[in-house]
Amino acid sequence: MTTVTNLGFPRMGTRRELKPALEAYWHDDTKCASLLDTAKQLRRRHWTLQREAGAQVVPCNDFSLYDHVLDTAYMLDAIPERYRALADADPLAGYFALARGAQRDDVDLHALEMTKWFDTNYHYIVPELHAAQTFRLRTHKPVEEFLEAKAQGIDARPVLLGPVSFLLLSKTIDGSDRLALLDRLLPVYAELLGKLKDAGANWVQIDEPCLVLDQDMDDHVAYRTAYRVLAQIPRPKLLLTTYFGALDDNLALASQLLVDGLHVDLVRAPNQLDDVLDALPRQHVLSLGVVDGRNIWRTDLDHVLPLIKRAHARIGGERLQLAPSCSLLHIPIDVSLETELSSELRSWLSFGRQKIEELRTLRDALKSANALAALEDARQRQVSRRQSSDVHRPDVIARVDALNAKDAQRASPYLTRRDAQRKRFTLPLFPTTTIGSFPQTKDVREARAKYKSGKLQHADYEAFLQEQTQQCIRFQEEIGLDVLVHGEFERNDMVEYFGEQLDGFAFTKHGWVQSYGSRCVKPPIIYGDVQRPAPMTVRWSAYAQSLTSRPMKGMLTGPVTVLQWSFVRDDQPRSATCCQLALALRDEVLDLQAAGIGIIQIDEPALREGLPLRRKEWASYLDWAVECFRVTASGVADDTQIHTHMCYSEFNDIIEAVAAMDADVISIETSRSRMALLDAFVRFHYPNEIGPGVYDIHSPRVPGIEEMVTLLEKATAVLGPEQLWVNPDCGLKTRGWPETYDALQALVEAAHIMRQRVAVVA
Ligand SMILES: Nc1nc2c(c(=O)[nH]1)N[C@@H](CNc1ccc(C(=O)N[C@@H](CCC(=O)N[C@@H](CCC(=O)N[C@@H](CCC(=O)O)C(=O)O)C(=O)O)C(=O)O)cc1)CN2
Ligand code: MET
Ligand SMILES: [Zn+2]
């Protein structure tokens, strides 16, 4: 009979219980037992919840105290030498040191790199390997979590990150070939699988998400080798699990690997079903990802049921499993907690629990007529969404339709604008600025929490924010920054803040999704046509400008980033929604200009992560993404200076698109790479101005003046001094005031030194 399964569950808890437990332990390591106890309770609660919702197979080892890639590296003992003493003495402290670094007594360890998990807003820790890397089983976490579930009467299916994806998601520090380590890695996977079998596991979900990427011949050989070796040992059955896209040209390979079943993503890639059915070996189990693990909409069951029936007719119920498209890590847990949403909107939504319930309905619909009522209910929800006048706004559609090429084009070419702007602002060489946010201290967050819960009056909250903004501006003036910012104290998050003010958006109370470690975001939900009922940032920017005679930079989040970090409607192309956002933000840009704000920054840190996973789809994405940015930015006069900001980006592949954005100034993150990320701009002869970050804001460490001067010298060696700005890598919201004060003072001093050096040469 067809089985309802799940591939992974959020870890943080419906009330983010894991977050304070983690942060308490990081602050005070005597809280260790309490952290582990919270974690155990969460696992138990989540297994029970999934069973109650209808999952017959629930995952284990999907839980993590920080990140599952880090767990895998740690388990395999793939930890760099510098952490080893600490990890041996105190395994938990060693584990977190890899993720967060450690400074105490005689220990000073920096953290491993963190990067985006495929095209999600989740970040994983990048394992750091080298040519002489060896592996062994350092922990038995998957076995322990399997036994923990078993003790609770649950026969869970352990999740492992597969050996090939593990290597492909890692990096080597010596430039050696990651896949060359496979031979050494496989015996450890074999040992682990043997132990899982001994513990009683019948099946293991082995994730190889890299199978949806462009993979070359070497990668293919690695998959073949891996699963041939793992076929030769006594082990549980393996469900080879792929998600976030189509197998496409990797399908033949995936179906030939010596495993026992295959999971495919039919949400992102519904069209692959027939090919998958054709390729599937006769004994294989097939797991169909039919509800969207990446988004929060209820599934159109009438659309999905025929797919399932087709598979059922071909392979029968025994070999068929129904699942979310991917782990539910990327969505919140339970929509029934969102009592403040309108009941109509809520009826369109499905969070983790509801996704599993939908799978149960589908399973029931396959086998009996009893599910008719549930199907009809689901149908009504779709109809109500399709017909809602809240969703569909003819005036918005008309405005998008009326867009033309001129709307995406500044009035004059860059050099003309540059002259107009130089006349207007008379900035020195190496102008200094920051990226927008200043420390979001506990005070700021507490005041907002009190205001939102009604414990702080509106006027008092306003006065508090004004006070913060004033202090921030005084501080910037004192240390001598050239272009100021207001500090973003009024914003909870750079995306949520805008979502809260736009029509077509809804926001949740408990819809937290893990971004990295204990840090979460609450992505807004774009459910309808987007419109801006009133200016969003003008009041704070104008207030800030009124406090200083220096230029105040307006601060907006760009359309692509708002899109990328929200839950986006699935009833029209993402590009259409992005276009609506671009128009709403264009109006904001124009209102800022009208209010006298002459410099406006439009942040697009997520532009690059929105790139499709397959290269053949890049061009069409970049076309509309850049176009949307330009629609937002292009309405202004020549002497209004448009900045953009992109952090965590590798620019080599997309430099043409970045240039096509035609921002007058772009700030980027370059300090960790010691300016290496600048190479693309140099090679491309990027014509506009650039602020390469000279201060790594991800660490409390304060960079010295000379260190920043050295970075600026490097930049000046390859770009003209008149092209360069001086700024940190990103906003300062996660920093504290003391280090911010010292670091920015040093940054201004570094710019002074550069000005003198250039003047002497001239
Ligand atoms: N959307 C988004 N995605 C992003 C980024 C980003 O800035 N935004 N940056 C990159 C890195 N990701 C990050 C993600 C989250 C955080 C972060 O600091 N998150 C905060 C929550 C931020 C927030 O929304 N805060 C709200 C709510 C704060 C809160 O939890 N309030 C408590 C009470 C707090 C108190 O009394 O101290 C409550 O409501 O219970 C606010 O400031 O208003 C956290 O997890 O701690 C930082 C970086 C990539 N993706
Ligand atoms: C993740 S990019 C952040 C940009 C934003 N203006 C800030 O300074 O926080
Ligand atoms: Zn940034």
From TrEMBL:
Binds 1 zinc ion per subunit. InterPro entries: Cbl-indep_Met_Synth_N, Cobalamin-indep_Met_synthase, Met_Synth_C/arc, UROD/MetE-like_sf. Pathway: Amino-acid biosynthesis; L-methionine biosynthesis via de novo pathway; L-methionine from L-homocysteine (MetE route): step 1/1. L-methionine binds at residues 435-437, 488, 603. Zn(2+) binds at residues 645, 647, 669, 730. Its EC number is 2.1.1.14. One of its GO terms (molecular function) is 5-methyltetrahydropteroyltriglutamate-homocysteine S-methyltransferase activity. Catalyzes the transfer of a methyl group from 5-methyltetrahydrofolate to homocysteine resulting in methionine formation. Belongs to the vitamin-B12 independent methionine synthase family. This is 5-methyltetrahydropteroyltriglutamate--homocysteine methyltransferase. It comes from Dyella monticola.
